[in-house]
Specification:
glycosyltransferase, 10 helices, mainly alpha, 278 residues, transferase, cell membrane, transmembrane helix, Lgt
């Protein structure tokens, strides 16, 4: 079948030698949406909305640095031979798990510094992060990256995908699994699920929105990662993101059971910001 649409240009705007790429625009849009949702939820919980903005001032840049360090560590042989490329984030090479780990550590430090519950803060942020991840994956779409193995055009047509997605998955005449789309939709579904559960005061306790996020995302990422062609590997066929997904899923499940056993408060709209127990 003849291609109907050309691949989309990854560059949004160009001024002389300066390029603004859609990847950056889309990531920024996801962050802004997440901050708006988290700020609104923080107000409902009785927190100063500026708390979220101030915290993100630290969390976002440290998260980007963490994403880059994570990627470099698992491609260390290459970067030891090309040390000048370590800081060249604009050439690609960041990992979402690195951003999450660095971001969570920063949030933990910041909430302890401010005397605000870490668990409550993570409950506020969890659905916002999921929607940001859902939006952000479309940056990979624009770059024609984070895709899966080769498939036929007929396979993509049978998924009832619009033409512009099908053709963006056509790279040098070969069609690929749109794994960016699978993860985007999985994150969107998790966002909707968490919003639903958060409204049911009898279902979730403080901190369990966070655990729901961890289990949901890691479960889906495990399977989606297995389809991708750009995975980082620990050794042999063991993919880093799949191993970490298993650890996170099991860790969240065990800690959830521990908190339930210790009778943490059942109210997801808990507003005692001075509570230090996490």
């Amino acid at each position: 079948m003849t291609n109907l649409i050309a691949a989309l240009n990854p560059v949004a705007l160009s001024f002389g030698g300066l390029e603004i790429r859609w990847y950056g625009v889309i990531i920024a849009a996801g962050i802004l949406v997440a901050m708006a949702l988290a700020t609104k939820e923080a107000e409902k919980k009785g927190l100063d909305p500026d708390f979220i903005v101030d915290m993100m001032f630290w969390t976002i840049p440290i998260g980007i640095i963490g994403a880059r360090i994570y990627y470099v560590l698992f491609e260390l042989d290459y970067y030891l031979q090309n040390p000048g490329e370590i800081i060249q984030v604009w050439n690609g090479g960041i990992a979402i798990y690195g951003a999450l780990i660095a971001g969570i550590l920063t949030i933990y430090w910041y909430t302890k510094r401010k005397g605000i519950s870490f668990a409550l803060t993570m409950d506020i942020l969890a659905p916002a992060v999921l929607i940001a991840q859902s939006i952000g994956r479309w940056g990979n779409f624009m770059n024609q990256e984070a895709h899966g193995e080769e498939v036929s055009r007929v396979f993509l047509e049978n998924l009832f995908l619009p033409e512009f997605i099908i053709e963006q998955m056509n790279i040098n005449g070969i069609y690929y699994h749109p794994t960016f789309l699978y993860e985007s939709l999985w994150s969107l579904a998790g966002f909707v699920l968490i919003l639903f559960l958060r409204r049911k005061e009898q279902l979730l306790r403080v901190g369990e929105v966070m655990f729901t996020y961890v289990m949901w995302y890691s479960f889906g990422r495990f399977f989606i990662e297995g389809m991708r062609t750009d995975s980082l590997y620990l050794f042999g066929p063991i993919r880093v993101s799949q191993a970490l997904s298993i650890l996170l899923f099991l860790g969240a499940m065990v800690y959830w059971a521990y908190r339930r056993r210790n009778n943490y408060p059942p109210d997801p709209y808990y507003t005692d910001i001075s509570r230090k127990r996490v």
